[in-house]
Every structure is written in C-alpha cells, then in structure tokens.
Design brief:
It is a multi-pass membrane protein. Its main location: membrane. This is Transport permease protein. One of its GO terms (molecular function) is ABC-type transporter activity. The chain crosses the membrane at residues 12-36, 164-188, 208-237, 243-269, 276-297, 333-352. The longest helix is centred in the middle third of the chain and has 31 residues, at 162-192. The chain folds into two domains: 2-40 and 161-356, no CATH class; 49-139, abc type-2 transporter like fold, CATH 3.40.1710. α3 packs antiparallel against α8 (162-192). It has a four-stranded mixed sheet, with helices on both faces. By secondary structure, it is mainly alpha-helical. The chain contains 15 helices and four strands.
C-alpha cells in the first residue's frame, strides 16, 4: 500500500508540473462546459421574423404584437412575398408570415381564415419550436370549440431550461473523454520519453504500477467533476439537484474506472500521443452518440437502441439525470449502478490485461 501511494503521488506531482495538461483539464471542466450550456440552445430564442401584410392591418397587427423577445425579434415588414422569400433564402430571417388581402375579411365573416407561413428548416429544432409558438398564439384567435381542455405540467424542468441539460451532458462527456486520454497519456509518455524500459526495471510488481497510474488519473477526473459541479453547474447555471450529491459522486467514481479501462486499451495499442488522440476519438464518439447525450434513446433507430446498451456513458447520463432532476431514490438507481459497474469492470479488466502484456 505504501508503494502504491508513492506511485500515485508521483503521478499526481508529474501531472501538476505539466502546466499545459493542467490548463486543458481546468478549461475542459469549466469554460468548455459553460460554453456548451450557454451556446447550445434548443429553444426558440431571438428568432428573426418577416411579414407581408396586404390585409390592411387590424387583426394582423394584433398577431404580430404577440411576437416579442426573448423568443422573437421585432417583426420586419417586406413589400412583397418575393422579397420575403429572398430574405429567407439569404438567412436574414427564419420565419415569414404572409397575410393576404382577404385574411381579416374571412375571419370576420366566418371566424376562420388562412395564414401562410414560410419556414427556414435548416435549423430544424428552433424553426419548429418557433412554429409551435405561432400555433399557440393563433389558437387564441380561433373560434373552434375543442372538446378537450389541455392541462400541461412540465416535470423536473418547469421552465424548460436547456442550459441545465446541456451543461450536465457536456460535463459527463468531457469526463469520459479526458478519463480515456489522461489514462492513456501516462503510459504513452513513458514510451515517447524513452523511459519505458526504465519503468520495466523497477523492482515493483507491474500490476501495482498499472493500478497506481490509472488510479491517479481517476482522482484527477474526480477533482475535475467536483470543480465542474460546484463552479459551473451550481454556480453559473444554478442547476437544481433533487437527489444526493454523494450518490452522484459515487456513480462518477465508478464510471471513472470505466474510462480508465478504455484508456488502458488505448495506451496498449498506441505509441505516440497523436495515436492516443486518434484512437480515443475513434472509440469515444460512437459511445457518446449512443449514450443519449444528444438524442433521446427512444428516438433512435431500434438497432441503435440495442447498441446503446453497451455504452457505459448511457447509464452514467441516465443515472446522473435521475439524481439531479428526478430526485430518484438510491434504491431505484440500481440499474444505472449495475450497468456502470459491470461494463466498467469488463472494460477495466480487459484494458488492464491488454497493457499488462507489454510489461
């Protein structure tokens, strides 16, 4: 145990002396997560709107007055539908409204009318969110008596704050990527610096060396998770946590060994840091895409849904979201802990055995 602690301290000191690596880790667990939370917006915000109004005003102006910030920019008037279409083509506006000459007349005569909407769907999520807002506004002017009253209750995230989800998902993805790269780096740097043979001559059990080097990187990742949770999630975004923070840290600790196991495999097949980066990205990107970080699992193709079961990041994300937003009891979190533990154990043992063949 004393030898292992000495090896762990040696790796931590070596990490702290590498100012560039320390800067990358600090940036990734702070500014990168903050940028992802602030910069990736799924809701309709500041949508540029243009309109052509041949109806003479009145009803059309009442509708346009409902389009205001933060969802919409002040509507811009165009003299013709061609000018409106050109503005959409040139990405000057996202939503175009066309009020024809009979728009108000039909509404006054029958209670029904037609509004033509042009939509730039390149940014599909925001454009259809904007369309949903418009439909809700227009329903206020509809005289149709619906037999059903809709009562919507938003659960877990009442204001639909995108930054909460994006910041948390980015933190979990970053901890995965850095866990792989840092674990691989401590071994590959020995190869690049020409000290691999010297390490082999050390009068220490090779298994102890592998365990100490990988465990030191787990501690670094856990320090980054604690910093990101306190400064970015709680401090910058005021993300609520309805469960136990200690259970989340325990889940993160178990998952860090999963990333370390993948890192051991990457270190075994790589000779330079450039190869580490390429192999790590080659492995991690499918795991991230299959994890539900960007697309809900139920929205994927059935085959991809089955493949997502082998992504340990899926269990980590679902477990973390359940702790933060749903406040799930510890006894109900066992599927996520089981998934992370089993996959983490298999990956770590495989990586441990793979790099152990080089000793």
């Amino acid at each position: 145990m004393r030898t292992m602690l000495s090896l762990i301290m040696k790796e931590l000191i070596s990490f702290l002396r590498s100012w560039g690596l320390v800067a990358v880790v600090l940036y990734s667990f702070t500014f990168d997560i903050y940028i992802a939370g602030k910069g990736i917006e799924m809701q309709a915000k500041n949508v540029a709107v243009g309109y052509v109004d041949d109806s003479g005003g009145g009803l059309s102006q009442k509708i346009l007055s409902r389009l205001h910030r933060p969802e919409f920019q002040p509507p811009v008037r165009f003299l013709s539908q061609k000018a409106l279409s050109d503005a959409i083509f040139n990405r000057e506006i996202m939503v175009g409204l066309v009020f024809d000459q009979d728009f108000a007349k039909r509404y006054r005569a029958t209670g029904h009318t037609q509004l033509n909407i042009l939509l730039d769907s390149i940014a599909a999520t925001q454009s259809f969110q904007a369309l949903s807002y418009l439909q809700n506004i227009l329903l206020d002017y509809s005289k149709t008596d619906l037999p059903v009253d809709l009562a919507v209750h938003k659960l877990f995230n009442q204001n639909a704050t995108t930054s909460w989800f994006m910041a948390l998902a980015e933190m979990l993805s970053i901890s995965t990527l850095l866990g792989v790269i840092l674990t691989a780096a401590v071994f590959v740097r020995e190869k690049e610096n020409g000290t691999w043979d010297i390490m082999l001559l050390m009068p220490i059990d090779p298994k102890l060396i592998i365990l100490a080097k990988s465990f030191s990187q787990v501690l670094i990742i856990m320090a980054g998770v604690v910093i990101a949770t306190g400064i970015v999630l709680f401090g910058a975004f005021d993300v609520p946590i309805n469960g136990s923070i200690w259970v989340f840290f325990l889940l993160s600790f178990l998952y860090a060994f999963t990333s370390a196991g993948i890192g051991l495999f990457v270190a075994a097949v790589s000779r330079t840091m450039l190869e580490v980066a390429m192999v790590a990205i080659l492995i991690m990107m499918p795991l991230i895409f299959l994890s539900g970080a960007w697309t809900p699992i139920h929205a994927m193709h059935p085959l991809l849904q089955k493949l997502s079961l082998i992504s340990p990041l899926r269990y980590y994300i679902e477990g973390s979201e359940s702790i933060f937003f749903r406040g799930t009891a510890v006894t109900d979190l066992w599927p996520y802990f089981l998934g992370v533990t089993i996959l983490g154990l298999l990956l770590y043992l495989y990586g441990f055995r793979k790099i152990g063949k080089l000793f």
